[in-house]
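Researcher: For the record, we're logging two predictions in this thread. I'll number them. Prediction 1 follows.
Model: Prediction 1, sequence and structure:
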Amino acid sequence: MAAGAVIYNFVVQLSDVDRGVYDELTLRVARHPSETDAYMLTRVLAYCLEYTEGIAFSEGISSTDEPALFVRDLTGRLTTWIEIGAPDAERLHYASKLADRTTVYTHRDPQKVLAALAGKKIHQSEQITLQSFDPAFIEAAVAGLERRTTMSVSRVEGQLYLEVNGTTLSCVVEVHALPM
């Protein structure tokens, strides 16, 4: 954990109808001083929406050779590389060579993220997805965050329903293909 990191505790009721995943998660998340609340919340939502056996948070911003989140199988092999925000093309190129699946979750304008990747060499770019949350949705959710947060995360037919400390929000999780 980085010096000066702030620890957030999340208790999450997860109901991902689209994938048939239902669980209660207890997460202890370190927010690095250079990390925004929006970035941290996007990491937590990505964790929930990708939740499966073997998922874990990386060491964080200080670990440049790891993604924000990853999934390893029982043998320790990296199966899924999950980036947050707006990674550059070189990072996605590297990721898609290491993992079976690469995806990005962003709280930023997805068109700007995609434009920055256009025309760049990215290994198997056609298999990488960008999943975006409406920035206003993230902003409203961040307003409800506390150091100890209780959340309910439900996804039904691509629609995300989020309850954060008593505030209910919803948005569509948009899935974008990377430009070729």
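Researcher: Logged. Prediction 2.
Model: Prediction 2, sequence and structure:
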Amino acid sequence: MKAHILLVEDNRAVLGATALVLEAEGYRVTTATSLAEAIECTKDNPDLNLVVTDYHLTGTDTGKQVISAIRELRGPTFRAIVISGDTASAVHAFDGDNYLCWLGKPAKPALLLTVLRNFAPTC
């Protein structure tokens, strides 16, 4: 069985399109548009295996905050994929994190799916 993914993206069009791509490949997807929603989704879905998050979210929320909050609930080895066009901030924010993969925007669906096949835990 494929992973249950928490997808965090504040752009609803990108969120919907990415969710459709992941679901078409057999992943179970739960979506959130903010840090607060991501925390609630994590609490409500004990079977989540991985988070895919944008780096810059609405307001002051960041993907780094999302990952930190989830790891406080699930442990430091919870896997994450960050997608961002901001290479300066995003890449250096996660130096030395072996449980994280970073993708630049725009991340083509085929690349995201390849990364997931190689990086996502199986259930």
